[in-house]
Amino acid sequence: MKILVTGATGFVGTALLARLTASGYGVVPAVRRSSGLPNEVVVGNLAASTDWRPALSGCDAVVHLAARVHVMDESSKNPLALYRETNTDATLSLARQAAAAGVKRFVFISTIKVNGEGRDAPYRETDAAEPDDAYAISKWEAEQGLQQIAAETGLEVVILRPPLVYGPGVKANFLRLLRMVERGWPLPLGAIRNRRSLLYLGNFVDAIRVCTEHPAAAGQTFLLDDGEPVSTPELIRAMARAMGRPVRLLAVPTGLLEFAGALLGKRAAVTRLTGSLFVDSSAIRSRLGWTPPFSMEAGLTATVAASA
Length: 308
Prior knowledge:
The chain has 11 helices and 9 strands. The chain has helices at 11-22, 53-56, 79-100, 134-153, 172-182, 201-211, 232-243, 254-263, 267-274, 282-288, 296-307; strands spanning 2-6, 26-31, 41-42, 61-64, 105-109, 156-161, 164-166, 198-200, 221-223. α1 packs across α6.
């Protein structure tokens, strides 16, 4: 089986290439500029006009990881247009070209943000979409366009909506939290009572691998996670255990944290620490027989070891 992987040099793409190659798949990495990967095809920047024909030649499946990711400090006056250009228009162009080239399956990596920004009940695939920002809207519009292309061409589309993904090489807020725990800083997060779903990189790429060829995956949308929703204090304690370090948690009332976040212009960042966002991932388990090969403890241990 020959699989085209876009976003091949990214955080997830690098791990996916290794997983697919180790499993015996033929892999074609699509890259924006030459990176020296075996069999890579340089496609340039993603746009509706991108010519994917050289990369798609002989491929049985596509895993589309490449995207304009969520930008925390967006400066554009029209961010939705920028997200749509890459995440919607370029995605649908690739899917149409894939169908024309005889590709059988298209695995699209979307986001749990299509479901919403969080709530006190688990998200499921059957819930109505509630994308709240430009990034999530562009992904949701791509999902809808892919379903239409599938209906018109017979292309087997599989949509995956991951929550926060962590693992060796993780950056941004997750890495910052790891560093704070490592340094033994007292953290005012001990009173938080929430539930957050996370997805270890090793579990993510294994689920993607299964979805490239499992017959029952065709036409499905799946939510993914490690199967172990945790509160923010539980996550911090698990990080500390993986490091073999003590943890210092202060029980500051959640309302006070949220008030401080609003005053400092960090409301969204505080909400990600205090609010709940978790998923029911039973659909992929029951329909495909998939279970995460790694526990959260194992995932955190590997992440900590790689970030040392």
